[in-house]
Amino acid sequence: MTLALPPGFRFSAATSAFQIEGSRGADGGGRSIWDDFLEPPGAIIDGSTADPACDSYRHPESDVALAAGLGLDRYRFSIPWARIQPEGRGHANVAALDHYSRLVDLLLDAAVTPFPTLYHWEMPSAVEADGGWLNRDTAARFSEYAALVAARLGDRVSHWYTLNEPAMTTLQGYATGALAPGRQLLFGALPTVHHQLLAHAGAAEALRTAGAEQVGLLNNHTWVRPLRDTDEDRTAAHVYDMIHNRIFSEPLLDGVYPDIESLGLPAMPVQADDMARIRGSIDFYGINFYNPTTVTAAEAAGPIPFDIVPTPGAPVTGFGPEWPIVPGALRDLLIDLKRRHPDLPPVIIGENGASFPEPERSGPVDDQNRIDYLAGHLAAVADAIDAGVAVEEYTVWSLLDNWEWADGYTQRFGLVHVDFETGERTPKASYGWYRNLIARHHGEDAR
Fold first, then answer.
1. Which CATH number covers residue 207?
2. Residue 165 appears among annotated catalytic residues
3. Is 133 annotated as a binding residue?
4. In the chain, N or C: fewer CB atoms in 10 Å?
5. pLDDT 10s digit of each residue in the chain, 447 long?
């Protein structure tokens, strides 16, 4: 595959701690909202837990070797707040920091740049008990945690993500309860938007004080389409676009929230200087993208004015109609974002990938469907670059098959197959495809 990607374009792959590490509680790690969420019967589709998952906490060398084998420019991993500060305040857990310091050194020795995420949904249970992201004080506590991590790793780590997918934390964690912490507040969840963005801004300040060169967060974005060309469906799509995309992008890029009050939604809990801190807080704009969302006006009267429906004519991933495959939607999203924000900073695609049904036991996997998905989305990125969007990096989710939150071990996203009974890792066909793509691009750069 030949892509018109610019010289210097970077390739990455990603994982998250709770999904791959196992060893919950090891080295004095604390309890997180996901430890709480998975306990009730039926909470996880296959009844599994995230232990041992890929057992990566005990075997980080295996993951680093796979990252290096791909020729990655950067490896995105997460540092769980609940391991570092078990109660979400106070001194750092030195043993846990030692572990991530070792991981950083392993990556640097393998010539792979470490790109940590400070919050991939692992809030300490004690912080949630105090209100979690509904509580403004959580932003200050998160900034203190970021400063502790930066004090230990900032001499070797210059590039940071603060938060992963605040939209999903708000919409699925606090509004519908599909993810931890499992709250069902509907539009009462909206204050969590502001408190997460404020937490990011405070963490960015702490990281830069410790010498960080590049700081951003990762928004989950989707290209929203009305099902029908009617005023009702266009209005429904507009509302959904506001609460999934624009309520996160506009504060960061323009320093203001969209006019959600005109939709009958509550005002955001903004205090003096908040928006100035948020607007100046990113060095790049991070986007996680998986699929478009098709929306129609809600059939039943109620507080939610839209219904999410299957995208007509689109093939789907292992999640079925919930995750349609439309690579061009990523191109359209990126071009539209640049149109809305002419001064858009450099863009990093922080996650893009797909799950498909695959064998549980170890062995070769010819995942051409995943190769087609990734190739299509990389082509969409190349088209957006041609249209003037400064995309600098693309990240595959995920390096490894992992524990997929409420779906347990039923969805496989990895470039590497993991046998969860034995821990054996087997690179799939997509691993070889991505490795060769990276090598060709770097070879072109060398010339």
1. 3.20.20.80
2. yes
3. no
4. C
5. 667 799 999 999 999 999 999 998 899 999 999 999 999 999 999 999 999 999 999 999 999 999 999 999 999 999 999 999 999 999 999 999 999 999 999 999 999 999 999 999 999 999 999 999 999 999 999 999 999 999 999 999 999 999 999 999 999 999 999 999 999 999 999 999 999 999 999 999 999 999 999 999 999 999 999 999 999 999 999 999 999 999 999 999 999 999 999 999 999 999 999 999 999 999 999 999 999 999 999 998 889 999 999 999 999 999 999 999 999 999 999 999 999 999 999 999 999 999 999 999 999 999 999 999 999 999 999 999 999 999 999 999 999 999 999 999 999 999 999 999 999 999 999 999 999 999 999 885 543
4 lies in some domain: no
Q: Is 122 annotated as a binding residue?
A: no
Q: Which of 21, 128, 165, 250 is catalytic?
A: 165
Please state, in angstroms and rounded to a whole number, the distance separating the CA atoms of residues 276 and 438: 39
Among 21, 351, 358, 393, the one annotated catalytic: 351
Q: Is residue 1 part of a domain?
A: no
Residue 404 is assigned to a ligand binding site = yes
Look up the domain containing 108 and give its range: 10-446
Check the annotation: does 290 bind a ligand: yes
Q: What single string gives the DSSP state of each residue in 37-106?
A: HT-STTSSTTS--SSSTT-TTT-HHHHHHHHHHHT-SEEEEE--HHHH-TTSSSS--HHHHHHHHHHHHH
Q: Which residue has the tokens 């931890």?
A: 180
Total number of domains constituting the chain: 1
How many residues belong to the chain? Answer: 447
pTM over 0.90: yes
Does the active-site annotation cover 299? Answer: no
Q: Is residue 3 part of a domain?
A: no
